[in-house]
Automatic annotation (TrEMBL):
Protein origin, superkingdom: Bacteria
Ranges for domain PAS: 33-72
Biological function: May play the central regulatory role in sporulation. It may be an element of the effector pathway responsible for the activation of sporulation genes in response to nutritional stress. Spo0A may act in concert with spo0H (a sigma factor) to control the expression of some genes that are critical to the sporulation process.
The organism of origin for this protein: Faecalibacterium tardum
Domain Response regulatory: 358-475
A GO molecular-function descriptor: diguanylate cyclase activity
Classification via CDD domains: GGDEF (cd01949), HDc (cd00077), PAS (cd00130)
Coiled coil: 132-174
Entry protein name: Stage 0 sporulation protein A homolog
Residues modified to 4-aspartylphosphate: 408
HD-GYP domain location: 495-701
GGDEF domain span: 212-342
Pfam families reported for this sequence: GGDEF, HD_5, PAS_3, Response_reg
InterPro entries per UniProt: CheY-like_superfamily (IPR011006), Cyclic_di-GMP/3'3'-cGAMP_PDE (IPR052020), GGDEF_dom (IPR000160), HD/PDEase_dom (IPR003607), HD_GYP_dom (IPR037522), Nucleotide_cyclase (IPR029787), PAS (IPR000014), PAS-like_dom_sf (IPR035965)
Length: 701
């Protein structure tokens, strides 16, 4: 049996060994009920935890379990019983936290149970791994943060994809609606606003290029001018609507009814038999004759109709000209139908093949007419008239066929000067050249003839070769002029079409950036055109040329072009704008004006000048309280006044990101009550006059 001295020596040797063990070393009694009291603690153990020995003993009463973090009891006591101590070799060190002076420290511990002198003890070492654990925690936190960021990014990406799919569907719906609206708008462009028939634009752009077989008919309302003069333009408009309705009741959906001129309609009947032509046109004539103009029961309608057949070889223009000649034949009787027979078609074909220009000789002397016929008859087809009245009749019945008139001055019934005056009045002089041929060689007669529009003057007696040469040169000159006019007209139409397309594209860009559909631009143009048309009927205060009347609706599409230079965040803000944001928005009028003013050839382009007026001043108000220049009354160009009212009306009746659409009646009431600023009283009257038409437009938008 060992003595006390022997035990002390062994303890001393054990202590020396423990102090030299790397890391910490401690020994606890196997007494769980008292918290595994320490038997021995190395200096290194205390150094790791930051405790002084006396302080440690006083604070924890030498209990091992008092050092353990509450969450780490299982790991700290893992190998402190006989059952678990044998598993150390397989499972390795335990990792847990011990309470230090400055907080808990992470340690890695190796422990084992021993029996010494019959008592059980737990011997263990600990290694400070706090820096490693803090780094691991930091890395895990970074990983968590990255995972959360990735999950958030995935969530946002998924949401964006869902939004994109939603926007894609909305865009597809918007595109479909816009296509439908574009189709409707194109239909409106090709429709006559009054009668609902196709208009002259549609003929020029589409029907003019049609090929046969078809029946082509020109229809003229008899005595229409008398109707207008007697009953007023309102009655004339009702008469046109009544005629159009009656004709539509007699034709198929595939047939084309076109308002060709003021009181003329062109009818295209594809594929009907030639022997059925007169029957169909008589049916139309009878239907119109029975029609009653609403409110004017005593006014009787009638049509003079000329019909011609178009074969595969016939250009549309030639057939229309032929139908026009037949219509004038029908007008000699009124309420009549004239169609081309087989004989007349053959004669017309022979005439075309011969390609002989027609000359009308007007002289009361048969001898003079015979002399001129002998000079010109070989190369020209000759028509004769013995006085001025007969001359005018032939000019009407042979309209479009006569290439030149040789006109005497002194004649019975109507002299040559009176013929010239009449030709000036009905504008025939613009299409048919006139050479005066007379024995009156006075300076006064010659000057008067030229002042009334004569192209040349030949004195009697004349040289046959000189007469022939002057006639030939004049006809060639006018033929060349007509070709040039046609060429220029075609170029102007093409240019107008291209301008219309480009303005439309540019305005669509502005509206897309403004977060609105392109329908706003179309609405503004239609409303502006409607108000302008009524204004021209209502007053002569504004002397607008036909070109200006065409330019104003077209240029209206560029009224907000300055918004290209405004921040989209402000343009598309759904809520109410701040004072600073509204000040930025107001700059768009000057921005747009400056853009247009800087365009090339601004000074020579009336369309750009009109667009400048509209862009700069369409937010001015009649009482001077608008912007940017505070213009008042008619100091504001009428173009800008029209677009201003159209813009306000469309803004009220259309849905925006910041408001719902108002009904038509509410919008009109707000404008007339001055809730949207002051407007020209004439324009307010125009708005009230056309509000029924505008309401119908809204229902179709």
């Amino acid at each position: 049996m060992e003595t006390g001295e022997t035990i002390k020596a062994e303890l001393l040797r054990l202590e020396r060994y423990a102090q030299n063990v790397p890391g910490d070393f401690h020994c606890c009694a196997e007494d769980p009920e008292n918290g595994y009291p320490f038997v021995y603690i190395s200096d290194r153990f205390l150094e790791i935890l930051g405790w002084e020995r006396e302080e440690f003993a006083a604070k924890f009463n030498n209990r091992y379990t008092a050092l353990l973090h509450p969450d780490d009891l299982a790991a700290g006591l893992r190998y402190r019983n006989a059952e678990n101590s044998g598993a150390y070799a397989q499972e390795g060190d335990s990792i847990f936290r011990l309470l230090g002076k400055n907080g808990y420290r992470w340690v890695s511990s190796a422990a084992n149970r021993i029996v010494w002198h019959g008592d059980g003890y737990i011997v263990a070492t600990v290694t400070d791994i706090t820096p490693y654990m803090e780094l691991r925690e930091k890395l895990e936190q970074q990983n968590r943060t990255q995972r959360e960021a990735l999950e958030s990014a995935n969530h946002n990406l998924l949401r964006m994809m869902q939004q994109m799919e939603k926007q894609k569907a909305q865009f597809a719906q918007t595109a479909a609606r816009n296509m439908e609206k574009e189709k409707h708008y194109r239909q409106r462009l090709n429709r006559d606003a009054l009668t609902g028939t196709y208009n002259r634009r549609y003929y020029e752009e589409v029907v003019r290029n049609n090929i046969g077989p078809s029946c082509i008919a020109l229809m003229d309302i008899d005595d229409f001018k008398i109707c207008n003069d007697t009953y007023g333009h309102h009655a004339g408009d009702l008469a046109l609507e009544t005629v159009a309705k009656a004709v539509r009741g007699c034709i198929r959906e595939t047939d084309l009814l076109i308002r060709y001129g003021g009181d003329e309609f062109l009818l295209v009947l594809p594929g009907i038999p030639a022997d059925y032509l007169r029957t169909k046109l008589e049916q139309i004539r009878a239907a119109v004759q029975k029609a009653v103009v609403p409110g004017y029961p005593h006014f009787r309608l009638s049509l003079s109709i000329g019909g011609a057949m178009q074969t595969l070889a016939d250009p549309m223009e030639n057939v229309v000209r032929r139908a026009d000649l037949l219509m004038y034949q029908a007008k000699n009787h009124k309420d009549a139908v004239a169609v081309d027979t087989q004989d007349s078609r053959l004669a017309a074909q022979e005439q075309v093949l011969e390609e002989k220009p027609v000359i009308l000789l007007v002289d009361d002397s048969m001898m003079n007419r015979m002399m001129l016929t002998s000079i010109l008859g070989e190369d020209y087809r000759i028509l004769e008239a013995e006085n001025g009245k007969r001359c005018l009749e032939l000019l009407q019945t042979e309209a479009g066929q006569i290439s030149l008139v040789l006109l005497d001055i002194n004649m019975p019934v109507m002299d040559g000067f009176e013929v010239l005056r009449t030709m000036n009045t009905n504008h025939t002089i613009e299409d048919v050249p006139v050479i005066m041929i007379s024995s009156d060689d006075s300076e006064e007669a010659i000057r008067k003839a030229y002042e009334l529009g004569a192209s040349d003057y030949v004195n009697r007696p004349f040289d046959a070769k000189i007469v022939y040469r002057r006639v030939s040169n004049t006809i060639k000159l006018y033929a060349k002029q007509r070709r040039l006019v046609q060429m220029v007209s075609d170029q102007i139409r093409a240019r107008e079409k291209n301008t219309d397309v480009l303005v439309g594209v540019l305005s669509q860009i502005v509206e897309f950036r403004n977060g609105e559909s392109g329908s706003h631009v179309r609405h503004i143009r239609i409303i502006t055109e409607t108000l302008l048309h009524r204004l021209m009927e209502l007053t002569s205060r504004y002397e607008l040329t036909p070109e200006q009347q065409d330019n104003i609706p077209l240029a209206s599409a560029l009224h907000d072009i300055g918004k290209i230079g405004i921040d989209e965040a402000i343009l598309n803000k759904p809520g109410k704008l701040t004072a600073e944001e509204f000040a930025v928005i107001k700059t768009h009028s000057m921005l747009g004006a400056e853009m247009l003013h800087k365009t090339e050839n601004f000074a020579e382009q009336p369309l750009l000048q009109t667009a400048y007026e509209i862009a700069r001043w369409h937010h001015e108000r009649w009482d001077g309280k608008g912007y940017p220049d505070g213009l008042k009354g008619d100091d504001i160009p009428i173009s800008a006044q029209l677009v201003s009212m159209a813009d306000v009306y469309d803004a009220l009746t259309s849905e925006r990101c910041y408001k719902k659409a108002f009904p038509h009646e509410t919008a009109v009431q707000m404008i007339t009550d001055g809730e949207c600023g002051a407007f020209n009283p004439l324009l307010i009257q125009c708005l009230l006059d056309v509000q029924g038409e505008l309401k119908q437009e809204i229902l179709q938008w």
